[in-house]
Amino acid sequence: MSVRSTLLAAGAAASVLALAACSGGAEASVAEGTAEDPIRIGVVSSGEAYWNTFADAAAAEGITVEIVNFSDYQLPNQGLSDGDLDLNQFQHLQFLAGYNVARGDDLTPIGATAVYPLGLYSTAHASVEEIPDGGEVAIPNDDTNQARALLVLQEAGLIALRDGGNSFSTPADVLADESRVTVTPVDAAQTALALQDVDASIVNNDFVGDAGLTAEDALYSDDPDASAAEPYINVWVSRAEDADDETLNQLVDIFHTEEIEQGVVEASGGTGVIKDNDAADLQAILDEIETNLAAQ
Question: Structure pTM?
């Protein structure tokens, strides 16, 4: 997931799509999941075919859902807080922690979806080992992807980070005497273009295809099962008081059926890795991120 748009999108990709107006002061309550009162789910990818599959699968279980599309990554959380949505599914735990801490909120993960590995690419070298000592690597400069990019480079053996690094590391934490390369932060959209000027770049999945690259071209990608990847697990999110709602949790189970999971992986170009962490595990990861973020 990357944060790069600013306007609310009036999605209409299927009959289940609708636009919700995010107005403060709405009373938060879980919908009944009927045609008259559908479960409203905020997303940023309603055009993906798996959402139609998901809506049909929910309907087969007697649950009507309304997929509400946004192109501003802040609005699905605000809509959930305001009661205009019943669930959202678009973000990883690191992003959720940032929202909760900034807004003093307690939006809650109730299920995992997937991790999307972040890759190191090069047009000058065929392997990590070929990148020369003293080489230059471009990384995204936004807070969310910058720290993750540094962790990827550390996993690849190209840099060392102060205290082992974490999801809040910055270039100032790179230990020059213990690192093989230097890092240059650039706008995430420019990391692929920078390949012509640097030894390698960390390129967000959003820009891999646009650059004529594929996931198979990556010299290295982070391990989706490593502890360093936990903040980047994408999640289903509800209001805290609704976290145990039976219907909402049933929707999480429906998402984890084979056909829908396959659709999610296909939509990611084969890079997505499905995760099934339970709510307690996800909350523990979120709590740690929020504690660290509040201490920054």
Answer: 0.82
